[in-house]
Amino acid sequence: xxxxxxxxxxxxxxxxxxxxxxxxxxxxxxxxxxxxxxxxxxxxxxxxxxxxxxxxxxxxxxxxxxxxxxxxxxxxxxxxxxxxxxxxxxxxxxxxxxxxxxxxxxxxxxxxxxxxxxxxxxxxxxxxxxxxxxxxxxxxxxxxxxxxxxxxxxxxxxxxxxxxxxxxxxxxxxxxxxxxxxxxxxxxxxxxxxxxxxxxxxxxxxxxxxxxxxxxxxxxxxxxxxxxxxxxxxxxxxxxxxxxxxxxxxxxxxxxxxxxxxxxxxxxxxxxxxxxxxxxxxxxxxxxxxxxxxxxxxxxxxxxxxxxxxxxxxxxxxxxxxxxxxxxxxxxxxxxxxxxxxxxxxxxxxxxxxxxxxxxxxxxxxxxxxxxxxxxxxxxxxxxxxxxxxxxxxxxxxxxxxxxxxxxxxxxxxxxxxxxxxxxxxxxxxxxxxxxxxxxxxxxxxxxxxxxxxxxxxxxxxxxxxxxxxxxxxx
Length: 475
Description:
Blueprint: H1 29-40, H2 43-56, H3 60-84, H4 90-99, H5 101-138, H6 156-170, H7 173-198, E1 218-219, E2 225-226, H8 228-235, H9 243-246, H10 255-284, H11 287-290, H12 296-303, H13 307-320, H14 322-341, H15 359-375, H16 383-406, H17 419-435, H18 439-468
Antiparallel strand pairs: 1-2
Helix pairs in contact: 1-7, 1-10, 1-14, 2-8, 3-8, 3-10, 3-16, 3-17, 4-5, 4-16, 5-6, 5-13, 5-14, 5-15, 5-16, 5-18, 6-14, 6-15, 7-10, 7-13, 12-13, 14-15, 16-17, 16-18
InterPro entries: AA/rel_permease1
Subcellular location: Membrane
Membrane topology: Multi-pass membrane protein
């Protein structure tokens, strides 16, 4: 069915196309681990523990474990695919080379949704921390620091931080990754400080009753969806971010080794951090005190009479939340880059600078996510990011299983232990979490993909076909 690459590619051709526009290889595994930790440890632990506690009570610990287990299975599938298909593009590239062009487009379209919403949402979250400081220090009116949905005109600080991160990425992957590593260290020091002050106040009685809202997702009398699985479906977003590492395949010095270390290593580190922080938080203060709080950890520190530590944690959030923006902005720009290089988006966007940075696609990405952050309310649609991610994770696990069957002897830098168990568990877990998302989110996700298929048939497939016939003269 139309297009030169509508069918899966032979396994001998997996990876980047010979002679294709390539990126500079400057990254090693410490940069990748820091990128993963920077992406994963962010708004998830700083805000979602409050949202999760509101939905599940102390049993939010189970929600973290369930979401983390599903993500760990998906992470191992990612590690195997990333060490086998050493080209940029993450789940989009794996799906295209294993399942075919249309499947690649659907997954790429889902990743565009995920990354755009995450970058924009974190930028708006950062603006929420920064706005009071900017008002007090510079006298900026709140109308210029909030979107129309909040009674303002436009969220200028959110646009500013996106532009700043985009400018940093234009300096090259290595410089931005090195700064990211430093900021991640600062972020972890703030979380360690939280544990230091909160742990002495741990009281096991605060964990009772452990599961006041039950396990399955259900609608509470107040109209809020509750239960361990309802919390897990939202908390899932606290763990993803490791997939951004896979987009760095073409900029990694030793991708077959370093990508697996970066993906699995960052997941293990973050799982340990989340378990410790969540347990200490729930034990230090009754969950009803910080449930649904936009700053639960800082609130807990104030509850235990540590206002200085709470202020330090808030300032640290302003300084380090850009690491989340950087990781997802990086991943978004690289997915756009590969889709443009493949012809599914305008090929002119795939140009790189002399230093190997994709300048046009970085500027294009900044325009897309900056517009969303500047004007649009994200609180009701951010769950869409989870829907796109869950579909992408399922596709990666499926690709791993198909490639195991199609090319069992292919050299792999990393092999998923018990692959024929881990892969199906990752798929089933992701689909179950997808079904646990709010129905409105599922409807909007279907609409998004219907629009995506329309774009594919109207533009993308025809463009690839023209390129194969030698008619692509786009600059």
